[in-house]
Amino acid sequence: KNISDKIAAGEVIERPVSIVKELLENSIDSGADTISVEIKNGGKTFIRVTDNGCGIEADQVETAFLRHATSKIETVADLTSISSLGFRGEALASVAAVTQTTLITRPEAEKTGRRLLINGSEVVENVPVGCPHGTTIIVTDLFYNTPARRQFLKSDSAESGMIIDLMSEMALAYTDIKIQFINNGNVLFATAGDSSLKKTIMTVYRQREYDDLADVDFTTPGFTVTGCISRPSLSRSTRRDQIFFVNGRIVKSKVIEKGLSEAYKERLFKGRYPVAFLFLETDPASVDVNIHPNKKEVRFHDDKAVELAVKEAVIDAL
Ligand code: ADP
Ligand code: MG
């Protein structure tokens, strides 16, 4: 059982950022409005995610770590939809298989909470504990029982860079949740959770000139495009600050990039790129996402329509 757990875990848990993503998505699914994520050493030695969500009932804490144990049946039925979070009830089992995991949790209605300690899928402690309502998961010593995998990890700063990118994107996608992010003891950002995209961008990216980004708010048959873009006076030499969401999910998309550059054509010098945080909403049936949870590729059934919608939305905003 242990070996198959480890093999399966390899598919989901490639690196620290995969763990942070799964834990953060669970916290979002829990209905929390406040979430804190702390990492150390690129997440290799320490990851802690705390939320004030629904918590887990005492008799469910061990079940949550079993493979294919999920309380989110509706989400699973809708696996192909781009909007579904979660991972078929495999995330916690996979994380626990390759780390030392501590779970501290209490539903708001319960007086006492529960603390569960798991070392490489073995439950070594399951005891009552006093704690705030919500859930904390602490993951230490990634791949401690699979040294070969540990060697494939990149440097601490490369691993933390990936987590910083993920945290930034998630903060933008969930502006209604207060998200705090701590890296090696430094608070990198703490969002207000007041649903303001501009304010969240300022908090997360800390670029003074982003205060002047233009708001995009455009609807055309089949599409709604919202977000913030730079005016032609501000541009970048890379696409680093171009972040796209389709139906709430972060994606990479040449088609959206094309729509953007079409809109800025003649307004920007060659080799310069606009800053763009764009949210596209469209019929989920007109979009294919790669089902693999760690990939971000998106395919539209009608590329030209998407390109045009983005182009028109941007021109409208400028
Ligand atoms: P999935 O998210 O696909 O259901 P996971 O392995 O990520 O599978 O989580 C297993 C179960 O543990 C979830 O279905 C949920 O019931 C519970 N759970 C995990 N994290 C949390 C959390 N932060 N708050 C409340 N419940 C949680
Ligand atoms: Mg999950």
From TrEMBL:
One of its GO terms (biological process) is mismatch repair. The keyword Acyltransferase does not apply. Belongs to the DNA mismatch repair MutL/HexB family. Coiled coil: none annotated. The chain holds residues 7 to 324 of 598 of the full protein. It comes from the Bacteria. This protein is involved in the repair of mismatches in DNA. It is required for dam-dependent methyl-directed DNA mismatch repair. May act as a 'molecular matchmaker', a protein that promotes the formation of a stable complex between two or more DNA-binding proteins in an ATP-dependent manner without itself being part of a final effector complex. One of its GO terms (cellular component) is mismatch repair complex. This is DNA mismatch repair protein MutL. Residues 201-318 form the DNA mismatch repair protein S5 domain. Keywords: DNA damage, DNA repair. The keyword Cytoplasm does not apply. GO terms for molecular function: ATP binding; ATP hydrolysis activity; ATP-dependent DNA damage sensor activity; mismatched DNA binding.
